[in-house]
């Protein structure tokens, strides 16, 4: 992280990759559950065992990706872009499908379907707020700024 004279922080590719990687890993399980729900794979597989296996796969992928990020840290710290709009769009895409996936996970866990809309609204509001904060601070994407 570099600081300019007017106190604007510039983040390296490493910090952006860390944010997008861990957001992807958090949302990977729900996104895959959306696919299982769309293709009705829950009728073929026992969904409880599938979620356990999927959780193990996501954990191993997270460990492998963390090691890869640590190995490439010096190289990625040297890369700097003035703004990271493509990475921010990727993060918004992952978050949108992740919200759907959390609702599917709630349904698979045996939750009452009458409350899915309530959970969806609260989760959307929290994640939109988080995305706006991340976009403003790290990705130089100020959605609310007038041009």
Describe the structure.
- With 147 residues, this protein is mainly α.
- The chain has one domain (9-137).
- Helix content is 69%, strand content 3%.
- The protein contains 5 helices and 2 strands, in the order ββααααα.
- Strands 1-2 form a two-stranded antiparallel ribbon.
- A hairpin with a 5-residue loop joins β1 (2-3) and β2 (9-10).
- α1 (13-38) runs antiparallel to α2.
- The model has no long low-confidence stretch (mean pLDDT 91).
Main-sheet strand order equals 1-2
Q: Give start-end ranges of low-pLDDT stretches.
A: none
Helix-strand sequence: EEHHHHH
Morphology call: flat
Count of DSSP strands: 2
Summarize model confidence as the mean pLDDT.
91
Helix content: 55-70%
Hey, roughly how much beta strand do the residues contain? under 5%
Largest sheet: 2 strands, antiparallel
Rg over CA atoms, rounded to whole Å, is 18 Å
The N- and C-terminal alpha carbons lie at a distance of 26 Å
Given the helix and strand composition, which structural class is it?
mainly alpha
Number of domains: 1
The total count of helices amounts to 5
List keywords for this structure.
147 residues, mainly alpha, two-stranded antiparallel ribbon, 5 helices, 2 strands, 69% helix, flat
What is the compact description of this entry?
69% of the residues lie in helices and 3% in strands. It has five helices and two strands, in the order ββααααα. It has a two-stranded antiparallel ribbon with strand order 1-2.
Chain-wise SSE layout:
Blueprint: E1 2-3, E2 9-10, H1 13-38, H2 47-71, H3 73-77, H4 85-108, H5 116-137
Antiparallel strand pairs: 1-2
Helix pairs in contact: 1-2, 1-4, 4-5
